[in-house]
Amino acid sequence: QVQLVESGGGVVQPGKSLRLSCAASGVPYGTSDTHWVRQAPGKGLEWVAVLYYYGNKDRYADSVKGRFTISRDNSKNTVYLQMYGLRAEDTAVYYCASPSGYYSPYAFDIWGQGTVVTVSS
Amino acid sequence: QSALTQPASVSGSPGQSITISCTGTGSDVGGYNYVSWYQHHPGRAPKVMIYEVNNRPSGVSNRFSGSKSGNTASLTISGLQAEDEADYYCSSYASGSTEVFGTGTKVTVL
């Protein structure tokens, strides 16, 4: 069973950058799409970005487009979320999530435990 | 990319049935049969309860069921139990190869 572990969260000043990592362990994670989902304090879940394995296609929510970049390093079984120009409204728990392949390509049955990003001066 | 609309809260007594709606547009809910429902307890990772509108993953109770009509999807929890108290989110694949979540519904077991 694949497990996802996020890291890289922390406290950062507005305008600064941060890179989150999502490392997969268990079985090889080679062909999975990986999504980032966040939850701001007191708010609901918000889809942030996806990196589709086939075609290496990336897509972003309008709220982060142009500021966040998703990428992967297959040799490390890791997907990254590079965040630039951070704003207070980016403060959230960031989860990476993936479909396992058993159910649906667009249902996330594998989730990490989340990493907290706080944007504050 | 507007969030799908869900009621903020729904409540019911143990044993009752409740239904949570999830309204989108033809570019998401209405355009694809890729609606999922997630149960989220605070401090824990979300758990998928329904995928592709009306399918349950292995291990999810058959008290959970899903449906869709037009631009609105629904999650029904029958035989409500205390352990069902949580936040529930719908999500849908959307045009442009993106995803969108619902606004979330807090389910309270009275």
| Helix count, DSSP H or I runs of 4 or more residues of chain A | 0
Which stretches of chain A of 5+ consecutive residues score pLDDT under 50?
none
Poorly predicted runs of 5 or more residues of chain B: none
Number of helices of chain B: 0
Q: Tell me about the biggest sheet of chain A? A: 7 strands, mixed
Report how far apart the termini of chain B are.
Answer: 34 Å
**Structural class by helix and strand composition of chain B:** mainly beta
**Oligomerization status of the protein chains:** heterodimer
- Strands of chain A, count: 11
- As a percent range, the share of strand residues of chain B is over 45%
Helical percent range of chain A?
under 10%
Tell me what portion of residues of chain A adopts beta-strand conformation: over 45%
| Overall outline of chain A | globular
What attributes does this structure have?
heterodimer; A: mainly beta; 7-stranded mixed sheet; 4-stranded antiparallel sheet; 11 strands; B: 110 residues; mainly beta
Short description:
The complex is a heterodimer of chains A (121) and B (110). Chain A has strands at residues 3-7, 10-12, 18-25, 34-39, 45-52, 57-60, 68-73, 78-83, 92-98, 110-111, 115-119. With 121 residues, chain A is an all-beta fold.
